[in-house]
Design brief:
six-stranded mixed sheet, DHP_3-monooxygenase, FAD/NAD(P)-binding domain, 2 domains, 27% strand, 9 helices, alpha/beta, D-Amino Acid Oxidase, Chain A, domain 2, eight-stranded mixed sheet, FAD-bd, DhpH_subs-bd
Length: 420
């Protein structure tokens, strides 16, 4: 029998010199590690299970301009990371009388910047202080509070390491969340998300509709779903990113009882045919041809899930990013929320005298923020996928009222400003 080795922390260790483990080294993990190291943690260790190149993940994401400014001022969003400015969102329906680009039923402001996941991660990783130990290829199999004096993480090799604080930044399959909130699991929303991206230069062969595209987000609307299309920066030049929400494939090829996906390059021929048939049936011809420019290696599909937790922190365990709350992508808030979590933790670290005070304050602020985002994204999902309106018959005023109904009093999508 293997005897677990335990690296112990003096129970009298004060917060200013605390030892922190960050489980997960992607966007949330890098931001958390940087934040607590700069705030005064004595030792910060990142435990990232992936051995390969995280920056190869090519999906797009957006951050609201106001959130970006706040996060830039706090230091959570480093300057110089490639971003593409977006200004407006155009809601389009198929209407052959209006040409291959379809008919615009509504246009609204969209003050966001789009990012390439890998480039954003790379910028955050480069900003992690040299004092942080980033251990890649290190799988954490479990976490456990240790009587209030610390917390343990169990590694795949059998060893156990003790820290003053363990932060779960390990996504929707979080092992830290399993320890802190064992009854909280992602729940299937009833539909799926197809994703893809392609070289923006390929649009030049599709006709003049592309002229209106660079600063616009186009949402193709159809009964039972919608597709969001926008540009993102890429490692080798601009790319077009798209996210299509629709009912799940009917051939049983996807597991819907547990979060899963066909990763880029893993799309089966049967699934590819289903996607092509959906696009051909529902999309204006121009946008259907645009999505067809996506290669199989850049296309994947995943069921949509969401989850809220009763607490984001307790004992010496704390959750950040998707580990704390899984929000449907409609809200366009995932990256901003993760960086806000890091900012809140750093602010708490500087202002609190004990770990107990730190975690209590984090729970009060970030727990509520996560629940609000989950609730808003559920309303957006119902309106834009599950219970779609008769978009083609609506005018601008009706679309604006429909949009306000989804917000339910929220000021907009993209997340909220942090509390002082």
């Amino acid at each position: 029998m293997r005897v677990a080795s335990v690296m112990r922390v003096d129970e009298e260790t004060v917060m200013r010199g605390g030892r922190v483990a960050v489980v997960g080294g992607s966007i949330a993990g890098c931001a958390i590690a940087t934040a607590v190291a700069r705030a005064g943690a004595g030792e910060v260790v990142v435990l990232e299970r992936t051995r390969g190149r995280l920056q190869d993940r090519g999906v797009g994401l957006c951050i609201h301009n106001e959130r970006g400014a706040e996060l830039g001022a706090s230091g959570a969003l480093p300057a110089g990371i490639a971003a593409h400015p977006l200004e407006r969102r155009r809601w389009v329906v198929r209407d052959d009388a209006h040409g291959p680009g379809g008919r615009v039923v509504w246009e609204q402001p969209f003050p966001f910047r789009s990012y390439h996941w890998g480039l954003l991660w790379h910028g955050l990783r480069e900003s992690v202080p040299d004092s942080v130990v980033y251990r890649q290829g290190e799988t954490v199999t479990g976490a456990e509070g240790a009587g209030g004096s610390g917390a343990d993480v169990r590694l795949a090799g059998g060893s156990v390491e003790r820290y003053d604080l363990v932060v779960g930044a390990d996504g929707y399959r979080s092992v830290v969340r399993a320890a802190l909130c064992p009854d909280s699991r992602p729940e299937y929303a009833g539909y799926v998300c197809w994703r893809g991206n392609f070289d923006a230069a390929l649009l030049t062969g599709l006709g003049p509709v592309a002229d209106a595209f660079p600063e616009a987000v186009t949402t193709v609307c159809f009964a039972g779903g919608s597709c969001v299309i926008y540009r993102i920066p890429g490692p080798d030049g601009p790319r077009v990113n798209w996210v299509l929400y629709a009912a799940p494939p009917q051939d049983g090829s996807l597991r819907l009882d547990d979060p899963t996906s066909f990763p880029p390059g893993g799309l089966t021929p049967a699934l590819a045919l289903q996607l092509a048939a959906l696009v051909d049936r529902e999309f204006p011809p121009y946008w259907g041809r645009a999505l067809a420019l996506t290669g199989p290696a850049d296309t994947f599909v995943q069921p949509i899930y969401d989850m809220e937790t009763p607490r984001a922190a307790a004992g010496r365990l704390l959750l950040a990013g998707d580990a704390a709350s899984v929000v449907r992508p409609h809200n366009t808030s995932g990256a901003a929320k993760a960086l806000q979590d890091a900012t809140a933790l750093a602010d708490g670290w500087r202002g609190c005298g004990t770990f107990e005070e730190l975690l209590r304050g984090y729970q009060e602020t970030r727990g509520a923020a996560g629940r609000d985002l989950v609730a808003l994204a559920r309303r957006l999902g119902r309106a834009q996928v599950e219970r779609t309106p008769a978009w083609a018959s609506m005018n601008g005023a009706e679309m604006a009222a429909w949009w306000r109904g989804q917000l339910g009093g929220s000021p907009g999508i993209g997340g909220r400003a942090m509390n002082p």
